[in-house]
Every structure is written in structure tokens, then in C-alpha cells.
Design brief:
The chain is an alpha+beta fold. It is built from four helices and four strands; from the N terminus they run βαβββααα.
Length: 111
Amino acid sequence: MKFIERNCVQCGLCEKTCPEDAIALKPRLLLAAEATQAVVLNEDRIFACVRCGKPFANQRIIDNMLGKLGSHSMFRDPAALRRLQMCQDCRVVDLFEKGNDGTIFDTTGKG
């Protein structure tokens, strides 16, 4: 994530929504040339889909997700847990391919 201070209006939205806590607001007015330069605030390895290889998230997000959901009953099946490491396209394809648990999900809401 790169940040250019000159573009900041101190609204605080970036600080509130940053999942990595990489931003902390400090009231100031920086007029030096460095205010126009992009500063790297946070950097992580890119995670690629385990099925197609397309990059779709960073490593920390995937690790956090696996750590939090790994013990959940919906992810006891290794195939379900592996889907968390897939991009959105591959996740859908994998879910409906033959050879999985065969469960058909009712998306109509009528039971």
C-alpha cells in the first residue's frame, strides 16, 4: 500500500477501514517535497490461487482467514478449507464440480 501525503485531507476513512492498521493519523501540514512522494506503508507477499495461479490476495489475509476459519465446522473437509485459498472464480467452479461432496445448495430460499 502506497500513500501520498499531499493527497490526504485528514478525513480518517483510511485509518478506520485499514485491516492491517498501517495508517495512523497525525495532524500536521507537510509542505516539503517529500509530501508528493509515494511512501510504502505496508507490504506483504501476494498470494496466488492454488487452482489457477491468479494473484488475488496478500499472504497475511489468507493466513488470518485460515487461522480463524480452520476449526469451524463448515471447513472440516480439506476441500472446503482449500477453497479459501482459491480466487472467487475457481471457488465457484470447485464448489459445483463433480467429485466434491455432492451437496446441492438451495439458493431459492424455499428450503
